Structures are given as C-alpha cells and as structure tokens.
Amino acid sequence: MERVYNPNEIEKKWQDIWEKEEAFQASTDYSKPKYYALVEFPYPSGQGLHVGHPRPYTALDIVARKRRMQGYNVLYPMGWDAFGLPTENYAIKNQIHPRVVTENNVKHFKNQLKALGYSFDWKREVNTTDPNYYKWTQWIFLRLFKKGLAYKSEMPINWCTSCKVGLANEEVVNGVCERCGSEVVRRVKSQWMLKITEYAEKLIQDLDQVDYIEKVKISQKNWIGRSVGAEVDFKLVGKEETLRIFTTRPDTLFGATYMVISPEHPLVEKYKEEIENYKELLAYREMAAKKSDFERTELAKDKTGVEISGIKAINPVNGKEIPIWISDYVLMTYGTGAIMAVPAHDERDWEFAKKFHLPIIEVVEGGNVQEAAYTNTNTGKLVNSDFLNGLEVSKAKEKIIDWLIEQGIGKKKVNYKLRDWVFSRQRYWGEPIPIVHCEKCGYVPLEEKELPLMLPEVESYMPTDNGESPLAVMTDWVNTTCPCCGGPAKRETDTMPQWAGSSWYFLRYTDPNCTEAFASKEALDYWMPVDWYNGGMEHTTLHLLYSRFWHKFLYDEGLVRTAEPYQKRTSHGMILGENNEKMSKSRGNVVNPDDIVREFGADTLRTYEMFIGAFDLSASWSQEGVKGCRRFLDRVWKLQDMLTEEMNYSSDLEIKMHQTIKKVSSDFENLKFNTAIATMMALINEFYRKGSVTKKEYQTLLVLLNPVAPHMTEELWESYGEGKRLYQQTWPGYEEDKTVESTVEIAVQVNGKVKATIAVGLEEAQETVKEKVMAQVSVQAAIGEKKVVKEIYVKGRIYNIVIK
RNA sequence: GCCGCAGUGGCGGAAUGGCAGACGCACUAGACUCAAAAUCUAGCGGGGGCGACCUCGUGCCGGUUCAAGUCCGGCCUGCGGCACCA
After folding, report:
1. From the alpha carbon of A227, which nucleotide's C1' atom is closest?
2. Does residue A677 sit in helix, strand or coil?
3. Mind listing the pLDDT tens digit for each residue in A271-309?
4. How does DSSP classify residue A558?
5. Can you say how many angstroms the Cα of residue A46 is from the centroid of all Cα atoms in its chain?
C-alpha cells in the first residue's frame, strides 16, 4: 500500500490547492451555459456551525461540482445573514459592539465551512451588515416607498412591563418576557409596513411557473390563503348605515341568525351613545387585548362574547331582525372584521350558538345541525332558503351573488389571509430605515446619494424605556434637515427586520462588488434566475414569500428579467440528536462538526450526512453510522492495492459500471444521495469480491465519488488519474444498452405467491418463457389438479399463473 | 382544532403496482494475531423442519388488482408548522 488514508493531511492540502488555482470561481465569461446553485446563507451565531448546516451545503455542493464537470459555468456562493437579535443581545450582555461580535462569528463560521471543502466561490461572499451591501437594501426600500408599497400604520408590539422594551415574538415565552418573566402586553406603535398583499394574487399564480417541491407550494398557498366569497351589507335597524361582512358561504345567508363583530370594530365606538351595555363591551375588549395569540388558541374551545344591546341588524334575504355580538374569535385584521353567523354550517358559529342559545337554522340538508355543524359543500341541496331551495351549494352561491348585485347590497369578493409585512424593529442591529420625518413635508425619503445611511455608533444598544429603538437617544443623529424643504426634521429610528437583507442577497451574488447598482444588468441577465435553491422547511413560508415579493417588485420596476427568482426549490429535513430529539444545548445532544472532521475527516462527514437517510426527511445522528462511512472511504482508498493497469472496464463488470454511472448521475439530480452512495458501496464490494479493479474502473469511481468526497478522490487522482486535476474532468457518460443484462432472473408466481425463479432472455418470447416456467417442479406442484385461468408475463420481471 | 410529513428487521434506511428488507450499523462465526484492535470472508426478519423446503410478515380495519409497503376509503400513533381566517 502506498500509505495510510490520512484525511487531516490531505484535506488541508487540497483546500489550499483549490484556493490557489481558483478552482471554483464563477467565470465572468457570459458566453458559457450557466448554472446557479444556491443554499440559504447562515446566520453566523456564536455557537458556530451545527451538523445541520452541512446537510444542504453538501447536497448542493455535489450538484455544483457535478455541473462544473458537465461543462457549466457554475455560481455556488456563500454569505452571511448577520443582522439579528442574538448578536445584539450578546453584545448588550458582554459589552462588545455587535459589529465585532459579528466579525468574530463570521470568521469562525468561515473557517469551519472551509474545513469541509465546499466549492463556494468565496470571492463573492456577501454580508448583510456591510454598508456596501445594506446601501442597496435601503435603496430597494426607497423604491418600495416611492411606489407607495411602504407605509406607516399603527400596529401592536409585545411590550414587557418590567424591562420596558418591545420584544420579538421569539422573546415572549408563554405570555411572559423571556428574560425577566414579567407580564407582556400588547402596545400599539406606529410602524413601517410593506404592502405584500398587493402581490398576493401574483404570488399564488406564478407558483405555476416554478419547480418547487409540492409541500412548499402548498405552504405558500396556505399562507397566502386565497378565498373566494362575497361581501354583503346588512342594514342596521333604524339606521342608514350598514354593516359590511365577508363570507365564503353566501349561499347560507338564509341561515344567518346573528352577527359577530370583532371587539375592536369601529361600530362600537361610533354608537357608544346608543349602546346600552357599552361599558361591558369595553371591558370585554380590554380582556381580549390582553390575550396573546397563544392564549387565544388555548381558549379556542370555550367561546366568549357579549351581545350588543341597543343595536340590531336585518338579514337582507328575509327582513328578520338579528342580534349583533362581539367576540374575539372574529379578527379585525381579516375580511371586514365582521361576520354573519350561520351556526348550522360553520363549526365556530355552531359552538358559539350552542353556548349562548342562539337559533340554528338548517339551510343545506345532509346532516343533523342540532348535533353538529354541517360543513360539507359537495353534497346536499339548499333548504329553508326561498329562491335557493333545491340548488346545490355551488349553484346557490352564484345565484345569491347575482341577487346581491341586483339588490345593490353585495358583490363577489376575493380575500387573502396574507397580511402586510410589519417592517419596523425597535432595535439597533439592523439596517437604518432611510426616511426623515418633517413636520411640514411628512415622511421624506433620503436622496439616493445619501446612501448608505450608516448605522451610528452608540454607547448602549438597549432599547429605550419608551419603546423606541436605541437609535432614538442619539439626538445628533436623529436631528437632521429635511431633504425636501431644508427645515428641521427627525430621522426614523426603527431599523429593518432581519428578513430585509435576505430578501435579495441572491441578486447581489451575481455581481457582489457593483457600486452603480445592486448588481449590473449584464450579471443579472446572465445568472438569474437561481436554477436550484435549497433551504430549510422553516423558511418555506416567510423568507421564500418575502424574497419572491421583493423580486416581483424589482421585476415590475424593470430591474430584473424574470418574474420569479428561483426556478427550483427543495427543502431538507432536520438532523436530530442520537436520542431522536432536536439537537440543543439543554438536551445535551449537540454534535459539533469540528469534532467529526478531526476524528474522521471532512470527506467522512460529507459522506455520512448524505448517507444518513432520505434528504427531505429528518434523520437522527449516529456515531456508529459515521464510522461506517469512514470504513467505506478506507475501502476505496485500499483499492489501490488491487489495481491493474487495464485501461478498460473488465468484461464481467462492464454492465455494472454503466449501471452505476446511470444510477449515481440520476440520484444526484433527484436528491437521492443515500442510494447514490449505496450504489457506489455495492460497486466496490464487487471489486473486493473479485480481488481486482482496473485502472479505468477506478478512475470512473473516483469521478463519481468526487462530489461527495472531493479531497480523497482528488488525492487518489493525483496518483492514478490522467494528469489534470480531478475537478477539471468530464462527468462520465454511460450507454443505455450497456446498462441492461441480456439474461435476467424472473420470479414465477402462482396466484401471486413466488414458487420459483428462472433465468430468461430479456427479449425472449412468452412462448419459450412459458416452457421454462411449466418445467419447474415447484410450479407444477402448486398448480396440481387446478385449472389455469390466466397467465401474465411482465417482460423481464415476473410470470404469474392464476389458477382456480 | 387546522395544515404538512412519517410509521418497513435489534437500529438507520432501500424498493417505476411486479421476488420486501438494497446499502450501512450492530451482532454471530471463521481467517490473521501470543492476544486484542484493525482488516478480510461468511451468516444475519419471526415461527417450523435434519433437509430440499413450508409458513407468517411493511401501524390498524376494509377495498381495488392476476399482483399492494406502494393505489382508494376509514382509523390509530409520532414528528413539524400554525394566524379560531368566516
């Protein structure tokens, strides 16, 4: 043997060579076919790399390396999503500037990633906290603002009564402040909002153009929550004014026996003089405001509410007076904040009606509405509904909408669950919002030449006790002049959320040092869209939706070429601890990738993470499994000992070689890394069985294995390859007709039970196959005296005899 | 409660509707060794039989089919996500 496989030595060697040779830099020669592979850039946390990170990175590294060997100009970049709460909190606690904390964390992360041998183009590294980067984040925000897509609105924030600071949802645990345990209440604050709802329809429709795994498309659609229904105006008794509701079931209008408005509905304030129990309503509203979302869901089973006395509504279809209630199960943020309640055909209304003894009228037959709400819309006809009687639900919907339009009291309406994006954070460590408030001119955007608006140095990063951002105490910075009238004005002191920088980073990678624009048009036109984007399931709603929204906006502005940023999106499963639970410090089941690299090598870690199980499912860590993968690599290494100089595939393994190339090639494309590796394991088992491997066979194996275990294969290639580097080789091809054996073993079944296996020619006629089948003693025995009713022959697979 | 995903040997997991358990781990035996480790070779779902073999078996209950882990209907359990969305 040449020498022992020593990964620590050879891995460093090749990482240095690749860097020196600029092996994985994307070329700016735009005449070549391109391939843009993208993984979600990490938040550089203080804990360093987690074994969960290498799973997606290795997967797309495999794809990227394979694409390069297939002749593509590949862009596989990496960067840092570095603004964010944990860094800021760490900075506060340890009295270190968040910029310094970020620098250290990035350095640590980068070293760890480099040790894993990824083919990232480090020349294109981006960092969302770099002013040269966030200049363009601010620039895009200004474009949004100028198009009316950024606006101010009163929104509730989580307010810790003890720390006197606004908290992120994440910092509210079971309704109390994470750090001090005090009560958290909702407080209203004027905040910047982005009008993502304006893109709701496009965000749903354009999913048809892209290749996302189905569950990602489903979660995007569910989050946007498009529903078609109607808006209907209900007259209030003795008033001119009407109460507008939204319903998805206008067909059930005859069954509306009461109405419910959200506790915050303006109607309550407007008629407070006439409402006899105004104080009671007010008390209820206060109680509802205190509830966190968590508590509201907990209380879901027990409906609460108060009837408004003094005001009634009229059901427009039958003129009946019906009561109006307030209840927190109706939300001001969805629809019109008011509903018509049809207890017979809506579960929440039904529970409410049962509790408060309100009438339940069946209008769609098919269930027992006194026992449970009947919500099936596919079967059952309308009853107790005058001119709708006898119609199916879908027909009744159409007819009632026509009727509402005719009467001038309603219309068809599409509603979305999606809400506008709250874009302000009362925090230091984020992009400053480049807006100035002037008493005379209102909210005025900074001029482009003023960008980047730098984050000022502050003494303390603590949010102030009046709910403002830490920037608010920086009077020198806050007080400025209005870009519009030159008068005194104040800067916006809230910062942007972490989502901002990650909403367009994939565009910056195409041209990371561009100073004229967020990226040059040539670079964008060439590289975009991203060909394959992989990330975690936890980002399949918000990050994906936000970045698609920004990209669609830039598309409408004529700044990018395609309506969608990502052509293909896949998601990986989580890596769990050995005990099958989520890895966490408190559970004590965290595995540090550095330890695995030190003990087994990066190639083993990469191989193991790909072999651990189906890529899209969660998998639990196993130290024994890691050893198995190291053993596999050792066996590949030791094949050197049985190497022959033969520059062909050996005749008995030719088919196996072609099959392996085919299987590995397609498995890499379909995220089936575990079976690709299993196939290569099976191949080397063949070499061991024979005790020899030809040079040609060995070379092919090295190329196939290279994307998974790049260092070791490159080292072996140096001794047994064809001169040039392995990473410069061409991906091997295969011949389809050499992947199939000419004779195959097929199973013979009698009534679906296997009775024998026989060897047949693949193209052999059924007649001669039948002769062989019938010659089998076990088959004859199984048939016995019974009669053969039917025979099925599936070529090269199975021969089934049906007897009676 | 709603949405999504999963359930296959001792374990991780394979199976375009076509011989369930590929590949790996663990385990057992043999080779090598003074010995152990490492490595190599072989075996390895349950029950039965000396044996060629027989039989049961992919969470549960039904169905479709010549044939079901796979498709359909109804459940059970576990994991992840959630905004009572009218």
Report:
1. B85
2. helix
3. 888 889 999 998 888 877 766 554 554 445 577 889 998
4. T
5. 24
Length A613 CA → B12 C1' (Å): 7
User: In terms of C-beta density within 10 A (0-12 exposed, 13-18 middle, 19 or more buried), how is residue A11 classed?
Assistant: buried
HSE value, Cβ hemisphere, 13 Å, CA-based, for A301: 1
CA–CA separation, A597 and A603 (whole Å)? 8
Q: What is the DSSP letter of A582?
A: B
Instruction: Please check whether residue A576 is in contact with residue A530, taking contact to mean a CB–CB distance below 8 angstroms.
Output: no
As a whole number, mean pLDDT of residues A432-456 equals 92
In the prediction, which pLDDT does A144 show? 95
Task: Taking residues A593-621, report their average pLDDT.
Answer: 93
**Residue A596 to residue A607: CA distance in whole angstroms:** 12
Instruction: Find, among A494, A496, A504, the residue nearest to A530 by Cα.
Output: A504
When comparing pLDDT for A262 and A124, which is higher?
A124
* Structure confidence at residue A1 as a pLDDT band (50, 70, 90): very low
Q: Alpha helices of A557-709 — where are they, by DSSP H? A: 593-600, 602-611, 623-638, 654-669, 673-690, 695-705
- CA–CA separation, A225 and A230 (whole Å): 15
- What are the tokens at A378? 């596919």
How far, in Å, CA of A802 to CA of A789, rounded? 6
Å between CA of A388 and C1' of B66: 50
In this prediction, residue A421 carries a pLDDT of 86
- Which nucleotide lies at the shortest CA–C1' distance from A792? B66
The helix (H) or strand (E) run that includes residue A361 is none
Distance from residue A145's CA to nucleotide B18's C1', rounded to whole Å: 61
Using an 8 Å Cβ cutoff, are A135 and A254 in contact?
Answer: no
Collapsing DSSP to helix, strand or coil, A497 comes out as coil
pLDDT over 70 for what percent of chain A? 96
In DSSP terms, A746 is beta-bridged to A758
Contact (Cβ atoms closer than 8 angstroms) between residue A454 and residue A144: no
For the whole model, what pTM was predicted?
Answer: 0.91
Give the Cα separation of A307 and A342 in Å (integer). Answer: 16
Q: Is there a contact between A128 and A80 (Cβ–Cβ < 8 Å)? A: yes
Q: How far is the CA of A637 from the C1' of B38 (A)?
A: 15
Angle at A122 between CA A547 and CA A530, to 5 degrees: 30
Task: List, in sequence order, every residue forming a beta bridge with A799; answer none if it has no partner.
Answer: A748, A793
B19 nearest neighbour residue (CA to C1')? A747
What is the DSSP secondary structure assignment for residue A49, as one 8-state letter? Answer: -
Is the C-alpha dihedral spanning A602, A606, A611, A617 positive or negative? positive
- Partners of A443 in the β-ladder: A437
Q: Is A629 helix (H, G, I), strand (E, B) or coil?
A: helix
Nucleotides of B under 7 A from a protein CB: 1, 3-6, 11-16, 18-20, 22-26, 38-42, 53-55, 66-68, 79-81, 83-86
Instruction: Look up residue A319 and give its amino acid.
Output: G
Which 3 state secondary structure label does DSSP give A735?
A: coil
Residue pair A473/A458 in contact by the 8 Å Cβ criterion: yes
Tell me how many degrees the CA angle A119-A122-A127 measures, rounded to the nearest 5. Answer: 130
The per-residue pLDDT for range A482-528, each reduced to its tens digit, is 998 989 999 999 899 888 999 999 999 999 999 999 999 999 999 99
Kind of pairing between the strands at A532-536 and A226-236: unpaired
E strand intervals along A161-241: 166-167, 172-173, 176-177, 184-194, 211-212, 226-236
Angle at A576 (CA atoms; ends A575, A582), nearest 5 degrees = 120
Terminal Cα distance for chain A, rounded: 64
Q: A680-703 as b/e, with b when 16 or more CB fall inside 10 Å?
A: bbebbebbeeeebbbbbbbbbbbb
Q: Are A383 and A362 in contact (CB under 8 A)?
A: yes
In angstroms, rounded to a whole number, what is the distance separating the alpha carbons of residues A626 and A634? 12
Check if the beta carbon of residue A121 is closer than 8 Å to that of residue A34.
Answer: no
Reference A271, options A305, A246, A238; nearest CA is: A238
- Structure tokens given for A578: 């050995």
